Amino acid sequence: MANENTLQNIISHCKEYGFIFQSSEIYDGLSAVYDYGQYGAELKKNIREYWWKSMTQMHENIVGIDAAIFMHPTVWKASGHVDNFSDPMIDNKDSKKRYRVDHLIEGFAETLTDAEKAKGILDQMDALLAADNFAGLKSLIESNNIKCSISQTCSWTDVRQFNLMFKTEFGAVSGEDSEDNIVYLRPETAQGIFVNFLNVQKTGRMKIPFGIAQVGKAFRNEIVARQFIFRMREFEQMEMQFFIKPGTQKEWYEYWKETRMKWHLSLGISPDKYRFHDHIKLAHYADAACDIEFDFPIGFKEVEGIHSRTDFDLKNHQQFSGKKLQYFDNDIDPTTNKPIGNYIPYVIETSIGLDRTVMMILSQAYQEEDLSTEEKKDSRVVLKFPTFLAPIKLAILPLLKKDGLPEIARDLMNDCKLHFKCFYEEKDTIGKRYRRMDALGTPFCVTIDHQTKEDQTVTIRYRDTMVQERILLSEVKSRVLQAIQGF
Ligand code: GAP
Question: If you take atom 5 of ligand 1, which residue's CA is the nearest one?
Fold first, then answer.
């Protein structure tokens, strides 16, 4: 169930506790660009590592690369991005505000109480988009009297295509209006994988089927850039291209749909928070595609795309570069009893936004709990992250700043910090310190008190249940290690 208030609360929490800040905030910010603070950066890194490991360590036939952001400009001609990477847009003549047509219509449909009417409008929109019928889209907007949220008028321009790639100039000659100097900030990481396909295949002696994974920044000049880190102009993608024999794409597409959904469920999120959405209008490179959608506070939205990209990319790079991008398959073809020979592989792509995954994990973890009793009112905000993703795993809290308690706490810190991220804190009452750790999503707090000096025990407090128990100081490290084992 969509809840904009929850999103607002999450945004405020992220700012207050050092997870995510608006970029260049002291200059009033830069729209749809965000910076990760000290805890957000840890959370993001943990998600990135989990994905990387699940791809490159858990699959023997997938390797990872790190290609540059800048690429030869012809890459984007070959990939189709120069001609096709655009969205239909419409401008309101009074407010001058530009909208992505599908977002404008979807936003309107969400406001309708008549679910059948809303569905009818969305079905019409899908059909018009699939047919690139821009005049039809405009009349759908006008006939439903869809208004601009700023001017509240229905005075619209024609629908036009708008390319989402950022351009910049390369080399010493800046300002010269020459096509030769133009480079693009990559709008997806995938092309860095395609142009390196043969380098990796040959040097890694990879045999089809095999995959190449990559994590990195991508840039899109999004027109409708809102909803926090859901839609940004600079963001990170975690993509994997899986190279297969032509004709086997249907089974591999199903395999990757299932495998990726399992990955999502391994984050401890229940299946009813996810759904698949099959694409009706396919991207220029795909013969089948779907999204994995997550139930964000703003409703079910795409977090990951799975695309059957055919041989579109490799074939076009081969044509534009004039270099062969083929694979020699020496498996025996049973019909001819000879090696299968050369072909351009087909590709199944899995593409997940890292920032969107951060938002998914935050949305899932964020809870406001009422802890009031008959005697007093009380509440807490807690981030119930899966332990292996939590920015801090263990908080070490000496009860007092004296009597040798900080020294014991420091020893524990030194013993644990090699293995996982710890946090040392001696300021404030213990209750306040616990609440702060709840707000940062720290799964374990350990308090060192005077009894520790007597019997070498400490209090361990569990974030989710707030249950406290006495355990041996010497057991603390293994407790935490056990909880993150295998990650
Ligand atoms: N290589 C295929 C590709 O880029 P996409 O569906 O355009 O496909 C893949 O993007 C994923 O990247 C999306 O599912 C989403 O998680 C993330 N993504 C795309 N645009 C984004 C944006 N503007 N801000 C944040 N994440 C974005």
Answer: 305
